[in-house]
Amino acid sequence: MPNEYQKAGVNIDNGIAAVKNISQIVKSTQDKNVISGIGGFGAEYGLANDISNLNNPVLVSGTDGVGTKLLLAIQANQHNTIGIDLVAMCANDILAQGAQPLFFLDYLGVGQLEPNKVKKIVSGIAEGCKQAGLSLIGGEMAEMPGIYQAKDYDLSGFAVGIADHSSLLSKENVHENDILIGLSSSGIHSNGYSLVRKIIDDANLDLNKQYQGMSGKLINILLKPTKLYYNSVYPLVKSNLINAMAHITVGGITYNLSRMIPENLTAKINHGSWHVPEIFNFLQVKGKLSQHEMDQVFNQGIGMILVVDPKNLKKVINELNEKNENYYEIGKVVKRNEQSVEFI
């Protein structure tokens, strides 16, 4: 017989089962610094191994979610990769400041707790953590009927990394004639999905159809997880080959790169210097969007931009080639014009 709490919409037994289901998945991401993870009132992570070579250690943190991309995952009943998006949105941010990844915490709020669905979601988070070099050490799972409908859920995450203060990446390191290297995105990543969903509705698009020029069904392209750049980029950071970096999220190249450009300089971008995936052209046509709006909302095929001193360019390119990272030389830093970022 259901108790009164279950009648109110919260099933404690399902919560316990869900935690049991994910325990080994979470543990598989953890490094030797994890003292205690899920099960206690707080997770514990030691820093002794990470600060021994740092003169002035600084913790770098980032938090984010995956926005309304979640609604497409729920609609399609595809929950295996949305956790990768969650980790990537946080991990790519702290990487952009030059941080060595340490640990990750997640928050999952649901309308109705289904242990098997939770396992799929957390498996994606764990996979993202492995790709990002992060230990998944804990989080929160809350069943909240009334706030969320039965099948609805929400995700947020928190990543923490560490760096020596002198090694942090910032606009202060950027100089005239630095080269801009754009790293390919895996697609739309996790920004602009309110506009994507509006285009789907307005143009009456079929999510299960493979449209001309597409590599698969529209829903699979839209749910392709955000790319993580840790494996190909952090070795460059560690070797002091990067002056600055920009993670391209909402606001596109213009807004996000401008955060890494000093007031006396301009990032001059060659608009035709990289391949724009077909999904962006498709959305622009179906949504009747201007080029300006496309550039403002979407990453347009560039997920991360590295700002590189010309003397380090060859080493950076060699290492990116070794990692099979797809990249483009998309521009350079020049003396300030009217704008911090200019397309040519």
From TrEMBL:
What keywords were assigned to this record? ATP-binding, Cytoplasm, Ligase, Nucleotide-binding, Purine biosynthesis
EC no.?
A: 6.3.3.1
Metabolic or biological pathway, per its Swiss-Prot or TrEMBL entry: Purine metabolism; IMP biosynthesis via de novo pathway; 5-amino-1-(5-phospho-D-ribosyl)imidazole from N(2)-formyl-N(1)-(5-phospho-D-ribosyl)glycinamide: step 2/2
Query: Which InterPro entries would you find in this protein's record?
Result: PurM-like_C_dom (IPR010918), PurM-like_C_sf (IPR036676), PurM-like_N (IPR016188), PurM-like_N_sf (IPR036921), PurM_cligase (IPR004733)
Presence of keyword Transmembrane helix = no
Any Pfam family the entry gives: AIRS_C
Domain PurM-like C-terminal: from-to ranges: 176-342
All copies of the PurM-like N-terminal domain together span: 58-163
One Gene Ontology molecular-function label = phosphoribosylformylglycinamidine cyclo-ligase activity
Q: Which SUPFAM superfamilies match?
A: PurM C-terminal domain-like, PurM N-terminal domain-like
> Where in or outside the cell?
Cytoplasm
The chemistry this enzyme catalyses reads: 2-formamido-N(1)-(5-O-phospho-beta-D-ribosyl)acetamidine + ATP = 5-amino-1-(5-phospho-beta-D-ribosyl)imidazole + ADP + phosphate + H(+)
Is ATP-binding one of the keywords?
yes
Q: Which NCBIfam families match?
A: purM
Family in the record: Belongs to the AIR synthase family.
Protein name as annotated: Phosphoribosylformylglycinamidine cyclo-ligase
